[in-house]
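Exercise 7b. Backbone tokens:
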């Protein structure tokens, strides 16, 4: 694969993170992995943190777009989604988010690894949690039940955060083992995540 200089530096950062953790990383590690001169590195970035910020900001921007695109159809429902609705929507309308994770799988796996930046996963969870909160409010408003949410704001935030956390972790698990898990398997895992508790699966199996 051919990289322009900026992408070569970004690729150098990712490659360097496969060799040592972020807290040990030096500018020189990125320079060596990118196979560029030090002068070239500092022409584009002041330090390795600036490259990391650039890489993650780009990923987060694309993640936001993918989530927004996939959630559009969920707002077309005029009732709270049933399990059948969730099944249909996950199978047919989560393509953008799956494509985002598939396209950026190598970078994501490394960045959320023990060598990477734990804040990236947290950022994705917070973004998705906020989007899910808005969606849940939409469904509650259909039945004029906003007061129910207002009476327990912490619980509502927890539920949105829990769902977002489970979804992001499921997608990260998928790209981590993408050679063993197909995209259709990933959809199935998301379906289990959103519609079946561990108790239900343990007690009643996967059906």
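Sequence design result:
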């Amino acid at each position: 694969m051919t990289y322009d200089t900026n992408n070569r530096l970004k690729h150098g950062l990712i490659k360097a993170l496969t060799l040592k953790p972020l807290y040990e990383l030096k500018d020189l590690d990125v320079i060596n992995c990118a196979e560029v001169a030090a002068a070239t590195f500092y022409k584009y970035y002041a330090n390795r943190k600036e490259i990391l910020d650039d890489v993650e900001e780009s990923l987060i921007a694309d993640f936001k777009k993918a989530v927004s695109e996939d959630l559009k159809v969920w707002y077309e429902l005029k009732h709270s989604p049933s399990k059948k609705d969730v099944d249909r929507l996950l199978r047919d309308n989560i393509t953008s988010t799956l494509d985002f994770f598939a396209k950026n799988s190598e970078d994501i796996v490394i960045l959320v690894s023990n060598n990477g930046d734990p804040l990236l996963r947290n950022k994705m969870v917070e973004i998705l949690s906020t989007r899910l909160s808005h969606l849940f409010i939409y469904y509650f408003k259909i039945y004029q039940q906003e007061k129910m949410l207002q009476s327990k704001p912490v619980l509502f935030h927890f539920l949105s955060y829990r769902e977002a956390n489970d979804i992001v972790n499921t997608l990260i698990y998928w790209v981590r083992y993408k050679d063993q898990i197909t995209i259709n398997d990933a959809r199935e895992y998301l379906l289990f995540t959103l519609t079946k508790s561990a108790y239900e699966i343990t007690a009643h199996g996967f059906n």
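Instructor comment: The chain is about 75% helix and 0% strand. The chain has a mean pLDDT of 90.
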